[in-house]
Amino acid sequence: MPDTRRRAIYGMMKTGLSFVLLPSCLMLLAACSPTPSDRIAKNLPAYEQLPKEHQAKVARGELEKGMSPMAVLLAWGEPEQKMAGRMNGKNTERWIYTRSGTGWSVGLGGGGFRGRDSGIGTGIGVTMPLGSRPPVSCNVLFEDGKVIGWEAVNGF
C-alpha cells in the first residue's frame, strides 16, 4: 500500500475515533446514575427538613422504617414504578426499583478489501448479560406515607 494512502487511512481512523470516543464518553457520563449526594445537592431544603437520623441514612443511600417518600427519593432516586393499594385498611404504596444488569459498550472496527475500497466502522450499543446476572428488583413499601419495609427480589 502506498505510504500516502496509509497515512490518509490512519488520519481518517484517528479523526473517526475522536468523533466516536468523545460523544461516547459524554453519553456514558450522562447515563451514570446520580448518587445520594447529587440528589441532596439538588434538593438541599428538603434534605435539611428530614430528621437528623434520616439525613445520615440518606447520605449513605440507606433506608430506615418511618422514612418519608422524600427521604427515599433522596437516598435511592426515582423508582421505575409506583403502585398504590390498600392493606389492613390502610393506604399503601409500593415503589419498585429494578437493576437489570444492562450496560453500555463502545466498539471500533476496521476492514479493507483488495483494491481501492476500505472502511472503518464504529458503534455504540446497549449490552445485556446472557445468563450472567439476573435482574434485581427492590421494593419499598409505604403505609400512610411512611416506609414500613423493603425487600430485594432476584429475577429469573
Structural class: alpha+beta
* Overall geometry: elongated
* Strand-residue proportion: 25-35%
Succession of helices and strands: HHHHHEEEEEE
Q: What's the gyration radius in Å?
A: 24 Å
Uncertain stretches of 5 or more adjacent residues: 16-31
Give the N-terminus to C-terminus distance in angstroms: 53 Å
Instruction: Strand order, main sheet: write it out.
Output: 1-2-5-6
Main pleated sheet? 4 strands, antiparallel
The count of β-strands is 6
Mean pLDDT: 76
Number of H/I helices: 5
**Approximate helicity band:** 25-40%
Task: Provide an overview of this structure.
The chain has 156 residues and is of the alpha+beta class. The strands form two sheets. The chain has a four-stranded antiparallel β-sheet with strand order 1-2-5-6, with no helix packed on it. The chain is elongated.
Task: Summarize this entry quickly.
With 156 residues, the chain is an alpha+beta fold.
List keywords for this structure.
single chain, alpha+beta, elongated
Helix and strand arrangement:
Elements: H1 3-31, H2 36-42, H3 44-48, H4 52-59, H5 69-76, E1 81-87, E2 90-99, E3 103-112, E4 118-127, E5 136-143, E6 146-154
Antiparallel strand pairs: 1-2, 2-5, 3-4, 5-6
Helix pairs in contact: 2-5, 4-5
